[in-house]
């Protein structure tokens, strides 16, 4: 009987020591945040536009880390979906949107602007400058095209315009497989 009590006492002491060690390790080596969510957040475009259904890129990254779909970010497009799929080692699905739109920026018709500052308050990236009761304008290089400034404008003087393709943005189109095959046939 005493050996049984001694064995139970040793097991109890061992359990208490392991519990204390685990409690210390949980406090000492605590990880703030989810490292996967942080990596996904770094891949998102940081437009904070809410088109994915979340309040911004960080909440969407946290949802992705918890298992939500990775294809809800129209500003990021197929490139962002592919990067996130590569990070998570999953198949890259198609974008869950009608179609990828060309890059756009907000444009304020300055003659119609009344300076209400509602667009400035709505802009998540501070791409709109101006003062109360003064004309506002958009810094095109900072605008992410999120479209959040259009709705609050009481005089409807903001419109979204496609970015013009300049020399720096223009790229040769990739040849199709059919063109490559026909070129090889002519060379032979």
Automatic annotation (TrEMBL):
Q: Where in the cell is it found?
A: Cell inner membrane
Transcription in keyword set = no
**Cofactor comment in the record?**
Binds 3 [4Fe-4S] clusters.
Q: Where is this region: Hydrophobic?
A: 1-26
SUPFAM superfamilies attached here? 4Fe-4S ferredoxins (SSF54862)
Query: Which part of the chain is the 4Fe-4S ferredoxin-type domain?
Result: 104-133, 134-163
**Binding residues annotated for [4Fe-4S] cluster 2, in chain numbering:** 113, 116, 119, 153
**Binding residues for [4Fe-4S] cluster 1, per the UniProt record?**
49, 52, 57, 73
All copies of domain 4Fe-4S, residue ranges: 32-90
Molecular function terms from GO: 4 iron, 4 sulfur cluster binding; electron transfer activity; metal ion binding
Name where it mostly resides.
membrane
PANTHER family with a match to the protein in the record? ION-TRANSLOCATING OXIDOREDUCTASE COMPLEX SUBUNIT B, OXIDOREDUCTASE
HAMAP family the record matches: RsxB_RnfB
Family (UniProt)? Belongs to the 4Fe4S bacterial-type ferredoxin family. RnfB subfamily.
Q: How does it assemble?
A: The complex is composed of six subunits: RnfA, RnfB, RnfC, RnfD, RnfE and RnfG.
Name it.
Ion-translocating oxidoreductase complex subunit B
């Amino acid at each position: 009987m005493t050996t049984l009590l001694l064995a139970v006492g040793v097991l109890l002491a061992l359990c208490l020591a392991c519990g204390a060690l685990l409690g210390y390790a949980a406090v000492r080596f605590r990880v703030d945040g989810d490292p996967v969510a942080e990596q996904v957040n770094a891949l998102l475009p940081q437009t904070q536009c809410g088109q994915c259904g979340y309040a911004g890129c960080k909440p969407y990254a946290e949802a992705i880390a918890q298992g939500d779909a990775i294809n809800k970010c129209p500003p990021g497009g197929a490139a962002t979906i592919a990067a996130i799929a590569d990070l998570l080692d999953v198949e890259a699905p198609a974008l869950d949107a009608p179609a990828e739109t060309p890059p756009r920026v907000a444009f304020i018709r300055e003659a119609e602007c009344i300076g209400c500052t509602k667009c400035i308050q709505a802009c998540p990236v501070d791409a709109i400058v101006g003062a109360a009761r003064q004309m506002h304008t958009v810094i095109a290089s900072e605008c992410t095209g999120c479209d959040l400034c259009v709705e609050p404008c009481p005089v409807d003087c903001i419109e979204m315009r496609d970015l013009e393709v300049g020399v720096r943005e223009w790229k040769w189109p990739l040849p199709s497989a059919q063109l490559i095959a026909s070129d090889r046939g002519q060379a032979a």
